[in-house]
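pls design
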């Protein structure tokens, strides 16, 4: 008897398969991980995600371990230095957006009562708990949803940039705010169980 088919997109490379098997769709329980996904999906704009994943550790090293407090202090000098480093995606607007989003993240953290309020803020856009979307080959994920549009609008209102509804939906999928694994994929049940736990 053949095992159930996994999500098709992960079969493009070993890197994507590992990301699919160990991260994508798992409900985040640490706001620092959510911020990292925000940074990575900022750099994804205009690229396939593997392009970003291949540079993830370089981003981690050069972007202060994705620490928003340190990134919030980055300015023009750091932009110029990073623009010379071929290990990352060298895009001035995305670098500046990352530093702006770090500052907006810290402001959001203050406004929601500290780190404990960050995850509830994001989960509120899916009704307070991960959304099981019941995807199938005939019901594939859209590029964006009303929830990702609402999140995008709220983040922009709070000073975030490069957080359109498509980017926000990518973040929601990656961070497990929605479970977009195909129901036939073993990871669907695993992520659903994590959401219930």
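designed seq:
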């Amino acid at each position: 008897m053949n095992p159930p088919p996994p999500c098709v997109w992960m079969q493009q490379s070993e890197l994507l398969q590992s990301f699919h098997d160990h991260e994508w769709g798992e409900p985040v329980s640490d706001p620092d991980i959510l911020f990292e996904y925000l940074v990575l999906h900022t750099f994804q704009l205009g690229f396939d995600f593997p392009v970003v994943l291949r540079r993830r550790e370089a981003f981690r090293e050069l972007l202060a371990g994705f620490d928003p407090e340190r990134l919030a202090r980055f300015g023009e000098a750091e932009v110029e230095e990073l623009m010379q480093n071929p290990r990352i995606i060298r895009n001035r607007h995305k670098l500046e957006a990352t530093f702006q989003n770090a500052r907006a993240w810290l402001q959001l953290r203050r406004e929601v009562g500290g780190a404990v309020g960050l995850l509830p803020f994001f989960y509120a856009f899916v009704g307070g708990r991960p959304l099981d979307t019941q995807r199938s080959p005939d019901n594939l994920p859209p590029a964006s949803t009303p929830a990702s549009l609402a999140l995008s609008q709220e983040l922009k209102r709070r000073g975030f940039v490069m957080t359109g509804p498509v980017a926000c939906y990518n973040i929601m999928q990656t961070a497990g705010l929605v479970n977009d694994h195909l129901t036939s994929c073993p990871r669907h049940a695993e992520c659903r169980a994590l959401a219930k736990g």
